[in-house]
Amino acid sequence: MAETNLHRMHRFDLTKRLVAKLQREEAVIGGIGHSNFDLWAAGHRPQNFYMLGSMGLAIPIALGVALAQPARRCFALEGDGSLLMQLGCLATVATLAPKNLTMLIMDNGSYQITGGQATPAAGGADFVAIARGCGLRSAVWATDETDFDAQIDRCLATDGPHLIGLKLDDQPPAAQTERDPPQLRDRFMRGMGVKKSKLPG
Fold first, then answer.
1. Residue 104, SS3?
2. CB atoms < 10 A from the CB of 13, how many?
3. What share of the chain has pLDDT > 90, as a percent?
4. Which of 80, 84, 162, 179 has its CA 20 to 30 A from that of 106?
5. Phi, psi for 52 (deg, rounded to 5)
6. How far apart are CA 157 and CA 167, in angstroms?
C-alpha cells in the first residue's frame, strides 16, 4: 500500500500494544520527545531506555545493545524528524544486520515537540522506501492497528533486522518522562544485567 494512503494511528495506543507483547525482557529505546514520553506512560520496565536531548540516537543506541546482547530482542522507537538527524544509521544497520533489532518509525510528518513544523515526510519522503534502499529488505508500513500487532508478532518470532513505518495522527503524548538521567541510565543498565544498584526499580 502507498504510504500516502495509510490509516493514521495514535502513538500511545501503538506503544501500549508493543509493551503488552514484551514477555522476555526485550530492550526498548525511546527516541527523544514524544516517542519516549508515550513509552514512559505505557508502563515502566527496567529494560526501557528514555532518550533525553540526543536527537537521532535511538536507533544507534538500540543497535549497540543488539550487538552487545544478541540473545535479547531490541526495539528502537524513533520519530521521523529524529531519524533525519542520523539517516545513515539505516545503512549501518543493514550492513551489520543484527537479527534481534526492530526499528519503529513514528511518522507524524512534523517536529511536534518544537511547534509542529513540517518534516520532509509531510512532503512525500517515504522512510520505508529509504530503508529498503539502504538494504533493509523487511521494511514495511503497518496499514492499521491490526496489521501493527501482526507485524510486531512477526518481529518477535523471526530474524531481523526489521523496520516498521507507522503513520501517526497529531495527538499529544500521554505523559512526560521524568528527567533524571542518572537514574534512567542506572535502571536501564540493571535491566540489561550489566550493573547492580540499590536504586529503586
1. strand
2. 17
3. 57
4. 179
5. -130, 105
6. 23
What residues have CB less than 8 Å from 31, skipping those under 6 apart?
A: 51, 55, 56, 57, 58, 76, 77, 78, 79, 82, 106
d(CA 177, CA 68): 26
pLDDT digit string (tens) for 25-53? Answer: 999 999 988 888 899 899 888 999 998 87
Q: How far apart are CA 138 and CA 184, in angstroms?
A: 32
At 10, list the grid cell: 495514535
Q: Is the pLDDT of residue 148 over 60?
A: yes
What are the cell numbers at 120?
520532509
**What SS3 state is found at 37?**
helix
Q: Which tens digits make up the pLDDT trace of 52-74? A: 878 889 999 999 999 999 999 99
Domain borders along the chain are 3-191
Pick the CATH number of 3-191 from 3.40.50.720, 3.30.2090.10, 3.50.50.60, 3.40.50.970: 3.40.50.970
Predicted confidence at residue 169, as pLDDT, reads 84
